[in-house]
Amino acid sequence: MNDLILIWCRRPCSFGIVFDIDGVLIRGGSPIGGSNQALTRLYDDKGALRIPFLFLTNGGGVPESKRALELSKLLGIKIVASQVLQGHSPFKELVRRFENDLIIVCGKGEPDVVMSDYGYKNVLSIDEYASYFDNIDPLSHHKKWVVEKETSGSKYKEMDRNLDVSSERVQAVFVVSDPVDWSRDIQVLCDILRTGGLPGIGIGHQPPLYFANDDLHYQVSI
């Protein structure tokens, strides 16, 4: 990854910088005072990168390319996808293992778009997967809110629709970011894991479960 950044520099640099994002450069969707100016100093007078740098965050939920574009607009500098490492970026390393398997992803944002962008071909968000099973969420009738899903990532949704989701076993589950509806997602995940990847078929061998991060406590602003 560093090699990709170093090629932008006019002269080889013996070190690089890794920045956290939330609370360091940005807070509440706005740059923290001085962050723009500090990052600008990493470039020379001609706009070439003097010191390579990366953004590293345990957050995510959107493709690295989209996060790079958001950061570019907020910070006023050009940032590319290879400079952004999110909590789920390591999932790229598992593509060969699960590329053509049915996998379920959960989390806020666009978890299915993220995984499709990495190269997984049969990806379903937990929202869509739950819709194939009646009454899989026992509390659904108590929920008056609706999660609006972005459709901007529809170009990635080229899953093999000949696949019968209600009879195909899930081969792996990925928690890409912290879910919006934990009560529903925990129930569905337990059903998938305990039944060997196919709810309603009895106990089976548990498919792998991967977490982008296991944070259970976050700093919040009051």
TrEMBL record:
It comes from the Eukaryota. Coiled coil: none annotated. GO terms for biological process: glycerophospholipid biosynthetic process. GO terms for cellular component: mitochondrion. InterPro entries: CDP-alcohol_PTase-I, HAD-like_sf, HAD-SF_hydro_IIA, HAD-SF_hydro_IIA_CECR5, HAD_sf. PANTHER family: CAT EYE SYNDROME CRITICAL REGION PROTEIN 5, CDP-DIACYLGLYCEROL--GLYCEROL-3-PHOSPHATE 3-PHOSPHATIDYLTRANSFERASE-RELATED. This is Hydrolase. It comes from Stephania yunnanensis. The lineage of its organism: Eukaryota, Viridiplantae, Streptophyta, Embryophyta, Tracheophyta.
